[in-house]
């Protein structure tokens, strides 16, 4: 890739005071977590839109838990990669930094990132569909579908599904950070799932520089000031160092 392009991206990142990093499944791809819309992301030929919905859970909670347990067992075995670590490093050196992620795998925190907004929740958290109690823990071997220890109703993954609203406090913080930042670094998202997909547009409208890191073109590419085509684990360490 063009060394000059990377040098320009590095310069913009060093210059920026308020930085937002927005990440999606692509940043964890090189750790071995399949993306949703890539070929390996398909599970038993279902698309995420068929599985990640409250209706699918109501219809067949066992199927949905099987999918989540498949993803949990994958995530349990992997480690953060150089891309996650580069963003953790950026947080150390930046004046003002927030990481907004659509990922539920927790790899950013394992890499050392602290100011992380998990817009879609965390895969290791479950919520009771009856009493709302939250259960946390890296549990891979559980009897599915699991039930609440307090009220015996079904537990569900505490993640945001299609058709559900995001936590409004998190979303408001993400919107505010996007409107106030000088630079948004967008990595590994296909930019098709709302409302996360709108955040780069809000940042751009408010005058921020947009840098995109992705091997493919996305709906965000046309508004990116700099587009770096390639994998996050290779590119991010070069531009965030
Ligand atoms: P997607 O699977 O839609 O997109 C992954 C993106 O990562 C694509 O644009 C790929 O080109 C890119 N990519 C692949 N390998 C990469 C690499 N090594 N480095 C950088 N980029 C790479 O994932 P998301 O955009 O995160 O939501 O999907 C958004 C949401 O849709 C997810 O949070 C999930 C899903 O359904 C819910 O479950 C609610």
Give structural attributes.
241 residues; alpha/beta; 6-stranded parallel sheet; 10 helices; binds 2'-O-acetyl adenosine-5-diphosphoribose
Describe this structure in words.
With 241 residues, this protein is an alpha/beta fold. It is built from 10 helices and 9 strands. It has a 6-stranded parallel β-sheet with strand order 3-2-1-7-8-9, with helices on both faces. A 3-stranded antiparallel β-sheet has the order 5-4-6, with helices on one face. Strand 7 (183-187), helix 9 and strand 8 form a beta-alpha-beta unit. Helix 6 (82-93) runs parallel beside helix 10 (232-240) and helix 8 (168-180) runs parallel beside helix 9. It is elongated, with a radius of gyration of 18 Å. It starts with a helix and ends with a helix. Bound molecules: 2'-O-acetyl adenosine-5-diphosphoribose (OAD). 2'-O-acetyl adenosine-5-diphosphoribose (OAD) binds next to helix 2.
Distinct compounds present:
2'-O-acetyl adenosine-5-diphosphoribose
Low-confidence stretches: none
Outline, from the CA principal axes? elongated
Q: Termini, distance in Å?
A: 17 Å
Over the alpha carbons, how many angstroms does the gyration radius reach? 18 Å
Secondary-structure element sequence? HEHHHHHEHEEEEHEHEEH
**Helical percent range?**
25-40%
**Content of β-strand:** 15-25%
Number of helices: 10
Report on the biggest sheet. Answer: 6 strands, parallel
Mean pLDDT: 95
Beta-strand segment tally: 9
Structural class assignment: alpha/beta
Q: How do the strands line up in the largest sheet?
A: 3-2-1-7-8-9
């Amino acid at each position: 890739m063009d060394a000059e392009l990377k040098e320009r991206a590095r310069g913009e990142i060093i210059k920026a005071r308020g930085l937002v990093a927005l990440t999606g499944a692509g940043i964890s791809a090189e750790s071995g977590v399949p993306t949703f819309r890539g070929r390996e992301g398909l599970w038993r030929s279902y698309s995420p839109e068929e599985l990640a919905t409250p209706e699918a859970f109501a219809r067949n909670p066992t199927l949905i838990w099987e999918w989540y347990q498949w993803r949990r067992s994958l995530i349990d075995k992997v480690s953060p990669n150089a891309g996650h670590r580069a963003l953790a490093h950026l947080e150390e050196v930046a004046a003002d930094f927030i990481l907004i992620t659509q990922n539920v795998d927790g790899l950013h925190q394992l890499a050392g990132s602290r100011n992380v907004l998990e817009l879609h929740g965390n895969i290791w958290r479950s919520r009771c569909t009856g009493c709302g109690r939250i259960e946390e823990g890296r549990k891979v071997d559980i009897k599915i579908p699991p039930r609440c220890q307090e009220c015996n109703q079904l537990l569900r993954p505490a993640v945001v599904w299609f058709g559900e609203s995001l936590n409004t406090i998190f979303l408001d913080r993400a919107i505010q950070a996007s409107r106030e930042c000088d630079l948004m670094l967008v990595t590994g998202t296909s930019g098709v799932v709302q409302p996360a997909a709108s955040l780069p547009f809000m940042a751009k409208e408010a005058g921020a520089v947009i840098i995109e890191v992705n091997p493919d073109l996305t709906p965000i590419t046309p508004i990116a000031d700099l587009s770096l085509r390639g994998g996050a684990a290779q590119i991010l360490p070069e531009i965030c160092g």
